[in-house]
Amino acid sequence: MSLEASARLSSSAFLTACRGERPDHVPVWFMRQAGRSLPEYLKIREGTNMLDSCFQTEMVVEITLQPVRRHQVDAAIFFSDIVVPLKAIGVDLDIVPGTGPVVAEPIRSAAQLDQLRDLESDDVASVLAAVSALTDELGPTPLIGFAGAPFTLASYLVEGGPSKDHRRTKQLMYSDPELWHALLGRMARIAGQFLRLQVEAGASAVQLFDSWAGTLSRADYLTYVQPHSAAVLDSVADLGVPRIHFGVGTGEILGAMSDAGADVVGVDWRVPLDEAVRRLGPDAIVQGNLDPTTLFAPTEVVHARAAEIIAQGAAARGHIFNLGHGVLPATDPDTLTRLVDFVHQQPVPARS
Amino acid sequence: MSLEASARLSSSAFLTACRGERPDHVPVWFMRQAGRSLPEYLKIREGTNMLDSCFQTEMVVEITLQPVRRHQVDAAIFFSDIVVPLKAIGVDLDIVPGTGPVVAEPIRSAAQLDQLRDLESDDVASVLAAVSALTDELGPTPLIGFAGAPFTLASYLVEGGPSKDHRRTKQLMYSDPELWHALLGRMARIAGQFLRLQVEAGASAVQLFDSWAGTLSRADYLTYVQPHSAAVLDSVADLGVPRIHFGVGTGEILGAMSDAGADVVGVDWRVPLDEAVRRLGPDAIVQGNLDPTTLFAPTEVVHARAAEIIAQGAAARGHIFNLGHGVLPATDPDTLTRLVDFVHQQPVPARS
Predict the structure, then answer these.
(1) What is the pTM of this model?
(2) In terms of CA atoms, which chain A residue is nearest residue B176?
(3) What is the domain partition of chain B in residue ranges?
(4) What is the distance between the alpha carbons of residues A7 and A16, in angstroms, rounded to a whole number?
């Protein structure tokens, strides 16, 4: 990248807000923006299963670019799935439509940990090629790399698939803390390695998703999870890219997630952003937090909510507009485009 | 009931704690204690579907008594399902094993509201006969009546079944507030009538379940839901029985749920009880809140957690021990029995 291109990237609204500096407009992107809400996504995915598509360089590039072209969002998020690094090191798993990740042999014993080897760049060569190509294609638009956090990754491995109550995961956590910490330590290494490789290939920010952390009490989160999430975030600390950390239903553990080493904390829609800042402290930089179901309301309701969120975000040192969870597949893409327009038209509020 | 029997009931540990007075032991019962974790339940249910079983007097009596006999819990909860009053007024719905309540024609228009008529005692005669018989059988052990709260009931009617994101429910709420409030008003009347009938038949406390209220922000809860939950609780205010109000993931709306008119607030495991009391105020009476997955841990872990919860509950004016959500079907019933023993052996803590 030329020096000029690099400077334009660095001064993008998204990266500016991530640094806690004042951007020229409120930056906005959407979790799961690259996905099923877009007809062009459904078309390109036809006949290719989810996991295969995550390893096909051209498809990753195209799917990642689609929402940027369509909505003019301020950041791209690399199209992938949180189980990709596990698949890449040879764990026998698949993503079953309508179900989610399914692991052939759930991991519940120390003997099984050996298969969870370190992730090397060759394991994800096609993925990193996509990151690299995307960085070129996107120019001044930042690319966000991502990985699943240790607790969420472990929960898929232990349950063998999605779970409503994470019973087996917590059973292992409560019953065999030694095996638990060994497993989460493995997950942390792999997630950290995956993020590092993405940044080295050109990603200019990372988001660590702990989808299920909100099912834990704060005490359990601190004991069993936070040290491992901290290890992941620490493993990319020297690379100088903003580290976003997000989970759903995390009102009780926002501070603990921030303390794990997040530069930006993603907040779901249950906690207003000004309340999140009260919990996180005045230096907080936050991302969020429109309830994704709001996108099915009339435009004036969507935009009124968005304006409220921008106003509440003024309590933070920085605010990146986003949903409070991923885009729902049934969302009308035009609603997203209009929302980006609306957010971009709002003045950046003075800090409240 | 004789005067002596009535006095023994009134001085039960459960009702004493519900009044904010000091019981002789920490009372304990479990949400979904009457259900699939018990082999005697699975046996009696063989060949009868869920909704039918809720309308068979003898079966309701037997299933309700099973956990009381087995675990020596301090209260019985009437075996039923939150959709029972809707079925009773003629809504075409069923409970599908492995799925949950499924409504034949989801309600999304004003024209459909007419079918949601008032609930009369004849509609639930077999159910009320069970309540009445249970009151006699249980003697000094209180029977808790229950109903689903307006938001949760409405969500089943609008979605047509269980939903992960409550998208259609919230869509209606945001898009057509008039229809929304009319629908929730109907739900509130029916839930209130159902609770009232149960108390008149002999129930000595009620629990209003708002299973899904935790998916709402506090602002939305206050605008769209709280007035209707308040109407339900108000409709039994004159009957002098404790009103418990519970939902999952409600950390942000605990105060708002209490303000709806709850005498006792059920708390899930994400919010420690002493923190719940900070949010609710020093006069709070709380119920909860062991993570149901903890019951899969070794006994010493279960009991250590229970002891912590009893200690945290001492911050409240009253504490009824319970789980933070319903008993999971795979739970070993002996674990529950041992837990009741353990709780009963603990000294009632001095208020902290």
Answers:
(1) 0.96
(2) A297
(3) 3-258
(4) 11
